[in-house]
Amino acid sequence: MARLNWGMIGGGKGSQIGPAHRLGSGLDSDFSFVAGALDHDPDAGRAYATELGIAADRAYGDWREMLAGET
User: Fold this and answer.
1) What pairs with residue 36 in β-bridges?
2) DSSP string, 14-40
3) 48: which residues sit within 8 A by CB, 6+ positions away?
4) Are 58 and 35 contacting, i.e. CB atoms less than 8 angstroms apart?
5) How far is the C-alpha of 54 from the C-alpha of 35, rounded, in Å?
6) Using one digit for the tens of pLDDT, what is the confidence trace for 37-66?
7) Rounded distance, CA 14 to CA 2, Å?
8) Using CA atoms, how far apart are residues 25 and 42, in angstroms rounded to an integer?
């Protein structure tokens, strides 16, 4: 089965739900976390996404930017 690429909106640094979803998706090899708009502060969201291993060009400032970039 091919891996499914996924992105997260919200769930930034210090959130409770973000780590749960990221850990859950990593329990098997079916999913790759590849994009994110993780914080209401665009710079903080981009920085945290890159900390998590998201490529800089897929670390977005808000959900609109992410949807435009991933379509």
Assistant:
1) 8, 59
2) T-SHHHHHHHHHTTSSSEEEEEEE--S
3) 12, 13, 36, 38, 39
4) yes
5) 6
6) 999 999 999 999 999 999 999 999 999 999
7) 31
8) 24
Distance CA(52)–CA(22), nearest Å, equals 10
The structure tokens listed for 29 are 């090899």
**How far is the C-alpha of 28 from the C-alpha of 59, rounded, in Å?**
23
The answer to whether the CB of 31 falls within 8 A of the CB of 3 is: yes
What's the pLDDT at 2? 87
Q: Parallel, antiparallel, or unpaired for β 4-9 and 31-37?
A: parallel
Q: How far is CA 33 from the centre of its chain?
A: 6
Q: In the prediction, which pLDDT does 71 show?
A: 84
